[in-house]
Amino acid sequence: MKLKNILAIVAISATTAILSVWGYGEVMKFKYTGSADNGKLPVNYAGFYGNNGGPVDFTAPATTATPAVVHIKTKTKAKQITNNSPRQSNPFGDMFGGDMFGDFFNVPRVQMIPEQRASGSGVIISEDGYIVTNNHVVEGADELTVTLTNKKTYKATVIGTDPNSDLALIKIEGSGLPYLIYGNSDECKLGQWVLAIGYPLNLDVTVTAGIVSAKARSIGVIGSNNRGNEPSVKAPIESFIQTDAAVNPGNSGGALINTNGELIGINSAIASQNGGYIGYSYAIPVNIVKKVINDIKKYGTVQRAYIGVQYPQESMSDEEKKKQDIKEGEGVYVMDVPEGGAAKAAGVKKGDFITKLNGTKVATGPELQEQVARYKPGDKITITYTRDGKEITSNLVLKNKVGSTEVVKNESVMDKLGADLVTVDKKIATANEIEGGILVKKIKEGALKNSRMQEGFVITAVNGTSVKTVDDFKAAIASAKGTIYLDGIYPGYTESYRYPVKLEGE
């Protein structure tokens, strides 16, 4: 063989080897696009190559993932609650002791709610300390403490929350932290082995195993335990991965991983009649998690898209379906198509069956909801539906809840109120026998304008919690949603008033 041929073969071999190494690196970089922007794997994945097809052994994924799952402890400070509503008293119960005179004169009752502590779990998703957890884990908390498996403890701050998906993003200050790589929840198969990792019952990190027993489950749990007088969750997203991995209180916000050690869900709920595990647990698919978390990081709030159709709920009985003339068929039955919505513009009509969204098959409401939740207003997708046995595919531009395609701004609650507020001065407070409050100096465009409140009103309580300064007021309404109740007085008058203030339209 001539020297020229030998050199050519060597050159081709070297080039192929270099291209192979480069190509593998690019594939790995694409695969691990979670928060590993530079394509390198976290240190906790060193030496781990996934399931090699041998006997089922969970030690590798468990060892890899546990360092990135954290224990979240919350503290809610003691609060003073004022209740101005009249009591429905037992005619005999208050005759002996109790607040007899308070009831008689309808004096506002003051109640102290003691300090509350709770705990949950979270998943580190970047080496600089971003952590995903459930909204219900951090909701209303005044202090957050995060503890890693190495027992290091950090103070955490809330970056943003989304009650509709029950997700929250918090952050600790650190570097070089272990974190989990995003998997693909669409690739979950029924019967596939999964591991749930968290801190149940205030125990140390715990790993349980099970299989995926169902997908796209809706169980009506998001928004069902709101603390306020009105549900704060207007449009919950429920398309859970159902597993039989044991999950108990404290697991909320923890990781559901596959046998490759990849994050495929955030554990969120338990099917239980007694608050403990009785067979099934539910996780938010990671493909929804990625969208929600990226929106919070980029925009400060979730960019929620709507296609503009009404469809039957999973809980609807056959009798209810018959009464509303809902037909059976393949896909999601369209009950109504409101004017001005994206679906209306795409030609969808009442009685159609939606079968695909951007080429992905959908058979139930939760499946449709899960697909829509991955997009933002303004995204252009295709919708496939059947009408009289004929399949139709149309282009569709998703819209936000107000019917436009614009990005939703992260407007604070104070901005929504639309008023100039100052701490009431001591002279006015003393003259009106109050410890403090917030004076409404000027009412502009916003929620207060629709509440019938007048300028000069002094707010003394928010949802029954006493407030004395503007800082107290800001803290009390920081995470408020739906309708809040503002109690107070008009200086010079003895009567107290309560104004309901709607922060968000229906």
SSE layout:
Elements: H1 3-31, H2 59-65, E1 69-76, E2 79-83, H3 100-105, E3 109-113, E4 116-124, E5 130-133, H4 135-138, E6 143-147, E7 153-162, E8 167-171, E9 193-198, E10 206-217, E11 240-243, E12 255-257, E13 263-271, E14 280-285, H5 286-299, H6 318-323, E15 332-333, H7 342-345, E16 353-357, E17 360-361, H8 365-372, E18 380-387, E19 390-397, H9 413-417, E20 419-423, H10 426-431, E21 438-443, E22 458-462, E23 465-466, H11 470-477, E24 483-489, E25 496-502
Antiparallel strand pairs: 1-4, 1-6, 2-3, 4-5, 5-8, 6-7, 7-8, 9-10, 9-12, 10-11, 11-14, 12-13, 13-14, 15-16, 16-17, 16-18, 18-19, 20-21, 21-22, 22-23, 22-24, 24-25
Describe it for me?
It is a single chain. This protein has 506 residues and is of the alpha+beta class. The protein folds into three domains: 59-74 and 117-295, Thrombin, subunit H (Beta Barrel), CATH 2.40.10; 318-397, Pdz3 Domain (Roll); 413-502, Roll (Pdz3 Domain), CATH 2.30.42. Helices cover 19% and strands 29% of the residues. It has eleven helices and 25 strands. It has helices at 3-31, 59-65, 100-105, 135-138, 286-299, 318-323, 342-345, 365-372, 413-417, 426-431, 470-477, and strands spanning 69-76, 79-83, 109-113, 116-124, 130-133, 143-147, 153-162, 167-171, 193-198, 206-217, 240-243, 255-257, 263-271, 280-285, 332-333, 353-357, 360-361, 380-387, 390-397, 419-423, 438-443, 458-462, 465-466, 483-489, 496-502. The strands form five sheets. Strands 1-4-5-8-7-6 form a six-stranded antiparallel β-barrel. A six-stranded antiparallel β-barrel has the order 9-10-11-14-13-12. Strands 20, 21, 22, 23, 24 and 25 form a six-stranded antiparallel beta sheet that branches. A hairpin with a 2-residue loop joins β16 and β17 (360-361). It is globular. The termini are far apart.
